[in-house]
Amino acid sequence: MTMLPGPTPKKLGLAIDLDTCVGCQACVTACKGWNDQGYGAPLSDQNPYGADPSGTFLNRVHSYEVQPADAPAQLVNFPRSCLHCESAPCVTVCPTGASYKRAEDGIVLVNEDACIGCGLCAWACPYGARELDPAAGVMKKCTLCVDRIYNDNLPEEDREPACVRTCPTNARHFGDFADPDSKVSRLAAERGGFALMPDLGTKPVNRYLPPRRKGAAEASPLAPLLDIRATGLAGWLDRVLGKI
Amino acid sequence: MSQPQLNLSPAVSDEIRKTTCYMCACRCGINVHLKSGKVSYIEGNRDHPVNKGVLCAKGASGIMQVTAPSRLRAPLRRVGPRGSGAFEEISWEEALQTAVGWLKPLRETAPEKLAFFTGRDQSQSFTGWWAQAFGTPNYAAHGGFCSVNMAAGGIYTIGGAFWEFGQPDWERTKLFLMFGVAEDHDSNPIKIGLGKLKARGARVIGVNPIRSGYNAVADDWYGITPGTDGLLILSLIHCLFEAGKIDLDYLARWTNAPLLVNETEGPEKGLILKNAESQPFVIDRRTGAPAPWDGKGVQPDLGATWQGHRTVFQHMAERYLAPEYAPEAVADRCGIPAARIRGLAAELARVAFDQAIELPIAWTDFRGDAHTSMPGRPVSFHAMRGISAHSNGFQTARALHLLQIVLGTVEVPGGYRFKPPYPKPVEAHPTPHFGVVPGKALNGPHLGYVRGPEQLALNADGSAVRIDKGFTWENPFSAHGMMHMLIPNAHAGDPYRIDTMFLYMANMAWNSSMNTAKVMEMLTDKGEDGEYIIPRIIYSDAYASEMVAYADLILPDTTYLERHDCISLLDRPISEPDAAGDSIRWPVVEPDRPGHAGVRGFQSVLLDLGARLGLAPMVKEDGTPRYADYADYIVNHIRRPGVGPLIGFRGDGTQEGRGPANPDQMAAYIANGGFYQAHVPEEASFYKPWNAGYQDWAVATSFYESPQPYLFSIWSEPMRKFQLAAEGHGAIQPPDALRARLQQAMDPLPGWYPPFGDAGAEGFPVHALTQRPMDMYHSWGSQNAWLRQIRGRNFLYLPTKIWEGQGFQDGDYARVTSPNGEITVPVAHMAALNENTVWTWNAIGKRKGAWALDEGASEAKEGFLLNHLISELLPEQADGQRWSNSDPVTGQAAWFDLRVKVERVGPRDHAEPAFPAIPRVVAKGEGRA
Amino acid sequence: MHPAPSVIVFTVLSGLGFGFLAFLGLGALPGHGPWHFALWVLGYALAVGGLLASTFHLGNPQRAWRAFSQWRTSWLSREGCAAVVTLILLAPVALGDLLPLGDLRLLGLLGAAMSLVTIFTTSMIYAQLKTVPRWNHPVTPLLFLGYAIAGGSILSGEGRIAVVACLILFLVLAASWRIGDRRFAEVGQSIGSATGLGDLGKVRVFERGHTAGNYLLHEMMFVVGRKHADRLRIIALAFSTLVPAALVVLGGPHWPVVVLATLCHILGALAQRWLFFAQAEHVVGLYYGMR
Ligand SMILES: Nc1nc2c(c(=O)[nH]1)N[C@H]1C(S)=C(S)[C@@H](COP(=O)(O)OP(=O)(O)OC[C@H]3O[C@@H](n4cnc5c(=O)[nH]c(N)nc54)[C@H](O)[C@@H]3O)O[C@H]1N2
Ligand SMILES: Nc1nc2c(c(=O)[nH]1)N[C@H]1C(S)=C(S)[C@@H](COP(=O)(O)OP(=O)(O)OC[C@H]3O[C@@H](n4cnc5c(=O)[nH]c(N)nc54)[C@H](O)[C@@H]3O)O[C@H]1N2
Ligand code: SF4
Ligand code: SF4
Ligand code: SF4
Ligand code: SF4
Ligand code: SF4
Ligand SMILES: [Mo]
């Protein structure tokens, strides 16, 4: 199973808009909430109310500060989850076949029943998209909400990942990158969507839409109506009210 | 091996119950999934008007709130010294009898000795009603320490503010400016709105010393010096005036700019000139003669001068064209180059005037003039505590509304839109009531909008009626009360001593007080007689917060999924510009605290208490309780004829707004997803204050008893009345010490003065702020095991100038000193920050032992509050008086006036001050219950 | 990377074990009888013990058998298979020391080769990881092979080979550090490429997304104790190469010397292995501003 399936007819994934993400962490807990009770073992927490808590999450949102050479520093919020790579190294390293890439849609999953929890796939992932759950001893990762997107028990409009559904700013888009007309393909094309660390050869499916250029709009300053010091208020009033 | 067969359609849950979220005041609709009777998953309700399916990080982790080990389980009675945390569990009967035993004598002799203050209360029309029935004048919710400047500044100017009052026209706006917003109450709607703007490629600009969150995604950022927004805004207005880029037609038609200002020396000077019928009037451009302000076809003349009296407009021009508001004059103070200010003004003007839009919707205005379309100026604004939590916040809020007005962008397509029941001018609001008669109800609602000195809550001798000194010369427009002054005043016995302090969901012993350590002392302080100076404290919380330890009697509340609640148009509804809306909560799971006396919904407890006290509206003629519980009240209470807490499904179930009580109303709400919307007719969708169609609909839907068209108050007459008093006019006179301050603060035209924190800030060159984290709600996020992993400690963020200037390194701590105190806290570097500002996330620091957390929790060890540095009182005045650290107009707590100095102290392992642990009232949490 | 004791013990012991087995297979220490067979037992014990130790860090060791299935793509799986093949191939050779099984030299040769193949597969588990630039280099297999051969030769008392192997290992070790210390930078991944924001300006972490710990921080961003690295490198270099070589040269082919030299070598190997993990920086650390 750790053979990659080759090109998949669908390439499902996320387009994440860094120009829009405000870093609210909603997708983080929505993901945890859904996956805590869905696919596979619950996402456990260790020492949840203790001095040193930790836990398994499939999606984390970081915040970076970027200092351009010629403009004020800016912050960019940066969600990070599995990119469902086409050449997923996490899959090929897996000794048990637990890690696999679905032939039909390219989703990279862990078959928890086969996973020995060796952690090698997490080592192989450049993006930190896999976290070993200490309670269940199996590898957890973003499932692209495979138990939502095809789920007949959900209304049609809800058949999208939990993180996408909850994102208040609509910074997360789900779709098929194999279809050039899909929303995600179009967004990626229009906005210059990029892959992370492409030279590692993982060929991520997910795309990040870069922050738009920041700064002042091109607007010429307003021309004063007249020299108020010279004409006084009365002159100004005349001029302004004459315009009506 | 082939890939595993997956069940792609697993059953999601056994059942979905729709109710309303509670982790903040945004009040989103939620679908609560249940498996085997237990909450299994919570998602947003797609049909809900507030969130349209989305949830924030708090809402999406609500399950951790309902299962938190910090939940209280039974009523508690203090058995040890106050603050020791020694309690015994008692039965509800005992708890209620105890409360009745304390309250009944007060009611019969001195009702004001009960101070009932509710914090993050979402049922203020109910709690206020209860307090009124009890007869104490001492009631308010948390608005006074929160954002009353924003609310009152808006009401006094345009008849509404941001958030629940109104919002940008997200669909059409092309340029959106945010002043001082980190998260706001309207959490999800703002994010949804920003998402819409981003999807359209509309422009977003942030004005904020800190460039995080919304300001991080803004297309441009103005890293303003805290407390100077008013100056920046007035400078923008200056530029617009200078260039004649102002919407004269809008000003003439819809604002009081064409009204005349009385120039006659004397007690009327500066008031709006009235005719013989005591009505303001305008000069009609067609005739050059006086005409009624609301006369049909009247074309008010902005430039008129009549018998020596000039229009408000001319006063505005004179004021704002003055060189003191030129960008060059304000640039240094604001920390923004003059060219940037001019550029921003140009951008505003360009979008407002060159990119104007028009909707083909016909409507008729209050003057009877018919319009074939609705022109719009697609510039919109939003602002929150960044401008309101300063001591010049009221005036700054007014300035911002003035900017909107000058651009002609309020209640027009693409601009700012009111949400029903707003617009509501000052005149449509009650005035404050404070008539106390022992054994009787108060003579009216406590809170309201003051129109002049005669409405201040003063005794004949000039002393304050209210314990918080609300509605006095110190803070005449304290429309939300001043909760932050309650404990200091009660402790000082100024204006008098109280007997029982009854608090509901406000963590006053920790993050919600200024000068936290002092407040804890005040709560435990004893007089010479060995009795507590604040003799009795009753508190209702749902969790083991810091405040619980300081109460004598705890009335444990349910969590949000376990009770009925009502989000009512009578107080803080969930309306949208196109629909009035209200909603409910209902017990989607039953409270379950095995082995303990259990918890009860606080509102139901209040009704029970009220009935036991014999409060008239809560008992039937025969003295038995009128309402079985809160659900019964929600459905059957009649506030005004035909008007109750909820507007939907009234009468026979089809009536909207008005109608008799409907016993099936609750069930109808539940079936409808927990909410109701009354849709604004299309022809009423904009120009609401002046739109006859809207006014009629608002009357029909119960917001007004009769149409209330009005003009925006650029020139505020109520404010001028206070200035007149300060100048010596009128029978009711302020103390001399306050005259100068009133003169300055009660300027009838929006103005700016330096925040009071600047005085006495010599040697404290740095501004210190807090921001709401989007993923935490004040103190209560930390009991949520998921959220505390995201943000379990905080840092003080230092700008590059300080970071590099003092050679700070990662892992360092800093000593931060203000005129009021000192803390030693972990620091981190942030370049995207105003160079004279430091900041941290609000309310992450916790007291050891609280919230069922381990004592070594990072929240308690490294987490910290800035509150220790802030004082509820300003430094002594010349006469020895200490004024409250508040806006002089509204009493809004000036959290963000804080000035500090920062010194590197190198690596440490815990923050200071470190308070001893408070003993636990619930066991330390191990796992999810 | 987190230097998990189980993995350190696994790689050190099984490396030594397979190295020793290779020498035994090649016919070092020729002989017969129970005492001689005991040497095989020692070799098997080290190799198998190491493999068993590696299961301690598994979340679900009871399913470890599944790890043999993916030899077509997975070096970890290949390692398992190679180890088993090696152990099976050499079993008759070992028994041949006890029982008269005839001439098994060829099998021994084959088993020796497979031992080295096993070592190589182990090394490739690490060397294949592009995410850990320090490991992702041909020097990693050399290192593992070097340790196996040096350890095997020391333990099998092959004095001259041991000295040469130790000196080669010395060079490989030094090279591995020299190369390794530059690898991360050479590979060129940075916080800018990790976030894709590098073109906008200089990127640094503002907030890392969670203040609590998680698997990634624990497993991939081990930074504790790196400050002892220099001292440990000296210990590793001295004990795994110079000291045993010196002992072998000075002490001669006596079993106490062999035991002492081996123990020194193991000590050095443990230190090296600890560093191998502790100093290995995973690119995911870029997201956290840590390496
Ligand atoms: N430094 C600094 N301090 C500030 C501010 C700032 O900006 N900077 N902001 C101020 C502002 S604007 C505000 S509004 C205050 C907020 O201050 P508070 O209103 O005091 O906020 P919380 O800390 O949320 O405290 C509310 C209490 O309600 C309890 N509670 C939660 N749910 C329930 C429930 O269902 N029933 C009952 N009965 N209780 C419940 C919680 O456990 C908690 O103890 O903080 C103020 N403090
Ligand atoms: N997630 C979450 N949501 C909340 C809350 C919460 O605790 N958590 N609390 C709720 C409550 S009670 C309130 S009152 C609201 C408050 O909502 P906000 O008004 O968004 O509150 P703050 O986080 O206090 O943000 C103040 C903002 O103003 C900026 N600021 C400070 N001083 C100045 C200034 O002088 N000028 C300008 N331009 N900006 C300035 C700060 O940098 C900060 O960004 O949020 C509500 N919503
Ligand atoms: S992001 Fe990581 S876990 Fe996901 S497919 Fe790519 S390599 Fe595998
Ligand atoms: S942890 Fe599980 S999924 Fe990952 S490589 Fe090991 S067996 Fe495969
Ligand atoms: S797609 Fe599903 S599993 Fe993946 S990050 Fe989003 S919510 Fe989590
Ligand atoms: S929910 Fe959306 S806006 Fe919030 S952190 Fe996630 S991607 Fe960003
Ligand atoms: S914004 Fe979040 S916490 Fe507030 S009501 Fe909505 S979902 Fe709940
Ligand atoms: Mo607030």
Description:
The complex is a heterotrimer of chains A (244), B (929) and C (291). Chain A has 244 residues and is of the alpha+beta class. Chain A has one domain (12-209): Alpha-Beta Plaits, CATH 3.30.70. In chain A, 22% of the residues lie in helices and 19% in strands. Chain A contains seven helices and eleven strands. Chain A has helices at residues 26-36, 89-92, 120-124, 146-149, 162-166, 183-191, 228-242; strands spanning 12-17, 45-46, 54-55, 60-67, 74-80, 99-101, 108-110, 130-133, 138-141, 172-176, 207-209. In chain A, the strands form five sheets. Chain A has a three-stranded mixed β-sheet. A two-stranded antiparallel sheet of chain A has the order 2-3. Chain A has a two-stranded antiparallel ribbon with strand order 4-5. Chain B has 929 residues and is of the alpha/beta class. Among the domains of chain B are: 161-422, Dimethylsulfoxide Reductase, domain 2 (3-Layer(aba) Sandwich), CATH 3.40.228.10; 758-907, Barwin-like endoglucanases, CATH 2.40.40.20. Chain B has 25 helices and 34 strands. In chain B, the strands form ten sheets. In chain B, strands 5-4-25-24-23-6-7 form a seven-stranded mixed β-sheet, with helices on one face. In chain B, strands 30-32-31-34-29-33 form a six-stranded mixed β-sheet. In chain B, α3 (124-134) runs parallel beside α17, α8 (229-242) packs antiparallel against α11 (327-334) and α8 runs parallel beside α14. Chain B is globular, with a radius of gyration of 27 Å. The two termini of chain B are 41 Å apart. By secondary structure, chain C is mostly helical. Helices cover 68% and strands 2% of the residues of chain C. Chain C is built from eleven helices and one strand; from the N terminus they run αααααααβαααα. Chain C has helices at residues 5-26, 34-55, 75-96, 105-127, 139-155, 159-187, 191-195, 215-220, 229-251, 255-278, 285-288, and one strand at residues 202-207. The radius of gyration of chain C is 21 Å and the shape is globular. The N and C termini of chain C lie close together (9 Å). Classes of the chains: A alpha+beta (244), B alpha/beta (929), C mainly alpha (291). The interface between B and C is small, with 11 and 7 residues. The structure holds ligand MGD (2 copies), iron/sulfur cluster (5 copies) and molybdenum atom (MO). One iron/sulfur cluster (SF4) binds next to α1 and β5 of chain A.
